[in-house]
Amino acid sequence: MKIGDIMTTEIKSIKPDISVKEAAIILFNSQISGLPVVDKDNKLIGNFTEKDILRYILPSYVVSVGKFIYEDDSKAITKKVENLANLKVSDIMSKEIITISADISLSEAARIMLTKAKRRLCVVEKNGRLIGIVARCDVLKALMK
Question: Based on the structure, what is the number of domains in the chain?
Answer without folding.
Answer: 1
